[in-house]
Amino acid sequence: MMPTFDVLVAGEINPDLILSGDVEPSFGQVEKLVDSAELTIGSSSAIFACAAARLGLKVAFIGKCGEDVFGRFMLDEMQKRMVDVGNVIIVQGGTTGLSVIMNRGADRAILTYLGLISKLQAEDITENLLRQSRHLHVASYFLQGSLQPGLPGLFQRARSLGVTTSLDTNFDPTVKWQGFEDLLAATNVFLPNEAEACSLARTESVDAAADILSGQVETLAVKLGPRGALGVNDHQKTRAPSIPVEVVDTVGAGDSFDAGFIYGYLQNWPIEKTLHAAVICGALSTRAAGGTAGQATLPEVLSLLRE
Known about the structure:
Number of helices: 10
Radius of gyration: 18 Å
Helix content: 25-40%
CATH superfamily: Ribokinase
Mean pLDDT: 95
């Protein structure tokens, strides 16, 4: 039986409240004004799901949210972007998480209330759902505390069913960066940024980090921000430069990069083409406020790849 979904995303559900302006908050009841405020789709997992769907992949999402304003907002917005939310678990009496992002163009600060973000468990992802999917993606590892213990087993279960896996850890608030050996061994595609890769590999050199981490996974793609990206597959390194774009907001750029990479991976593109597509997706996502408004379409990506 052919899978129903190209990608199954197991992740966190929370909107982002983005406050933009060249200001920093101060305690002592100091009131400062921002240039704009916008409630948008948040969570690395949801932004990735929307980017993958915009590229034409069939995407399903599983996570937990409350039957509240923020939960309904997230489910409605993901559905508008063709993400299947039929497997989302709505927790009666639970509270959907929220991130407040203070945005200053190329930089940002984030305050997150976890709510139900951390409550999804590996046992919630059934074998039937895995069988309906070609690929399983997990992001925000450090925020998904209840998923962590069972995630290596979930990835191994997926791979035994012929489902490939990908992981983007995102930042570790505890800065311990521990406990990844079993998980990486069951990961097909690992998608850290430069700081995360260096922290996990315990080195200050991104090339050294790539050498270490690429020995633990099938394919590695390290996001380098305005310097593009570094990929490793079959012990061969490749780099892709970024593309020029007028940056409005960098929220979700790494998640859109991930979606571009997984699109190419599922098309069996060479890693050079896949990495370039990912860089294009990441760069174009910064051209509008929020994580999803500027996300690339497949024709845009293909056009820039030809150039």
